[in-house]
Amino acid sequence: MSDKKTTLASRRHILKAAGLAIGAAASLGLKQARAAAYPERPIKIVVPFAAAGPTDIMARILAQSLGSALGGNFIVENKPGAGGNIGIGYAAHAAADGYTLLVVSTAYVVNPGLYAKIPYDPYKDFAPNYRTRLHAEFDPGDAQAQHQLDCGTDRTRQGQTR
């Protein structure tokens, strides 16, 4: 009789495991289907500074890389003024749907100390999703520096910092 109970229990475990595996595969398929559809429309990259500045150039490099990686259109939109507050405020009030990105410099953390009123909350309005770095001594012919530029965000996404 104990063999029959063991057999029944193992059948239940197998059926539960199979059900969980099928459910996990189905949910993974739905997530991949949603991710495959992104981006469905052009994505704006907001730069809170004038065109042709260092932040703008970094945003254009980022837009080109993301466009080729994701297969979508990335549009750099400059919103200069008030030390970056106009562009940062514009991005803060945009819909949180993943179609508006913000590229900032240190103005994001400095401006709350410089201005009495800013159009964004630096603690609540944004979520970091990409970190880039360029050094003044960057040499395009240096393979190690190119690797750092290409892989600069991998450790950030995994919770590690440089």
Short description:
The chain is mainly alpha-helical and 162 residues long.
Number of strands: 3
Uncertain stretches: 145-162
Q: Per CATH, which architecture of the largest domain?
A: 3-Layer(aba) Sandwich
Sheet with the most strands: spatial strand order: 2-1-3
Query: Helix count?
Result: 6
Structural class based on helices, strands and sheet pairing: mainly alpha
| Helix-strand sequence | HEHEHEHHH
Largest sheet: 3 strands, parallel
CATH topology of the largest domain: D-Maltodextrin-Binding Protein, domain 2
| Secondary structure: helix percent | 40-55%
What does the average pLDDT come to?
74
CATH superfamily of the largest domain: Bordetella uptake gene, domain 1
Number of domains: 2
Radius of gyration over C-alpha positions, nearest whole angstrom: 23 Å
Net shape: extended
CATH class of the largest domain: Alpha Beta
The amount of beta strand, in percent, is: 5-15%
N→C terminal distance: 61 Å
Topology:
Layout: H1 2-37, E1 43-47, H2 54-70, E2 74-78, H3 85-92, E3 100-102, H4 107-114, H5 143-150, H6 154-157
Parallel strand pairs: 1-2, 1-3
Provide structural commentary.
It contains six helices and three strands; from the N terminus they run αβαβαβααα. By secondary structure, it is mainly α. The protein folds into two domains: 37 residues; 90 residues, 3-Layer(aba) Sandwich (D-Maltodextrin-Binding Protein, domain 2). Strand 1, helix 2 and strand 2 form a beta-alpha-beta unit. The relative contact order is 0.10. The C terminus is likely disordered.
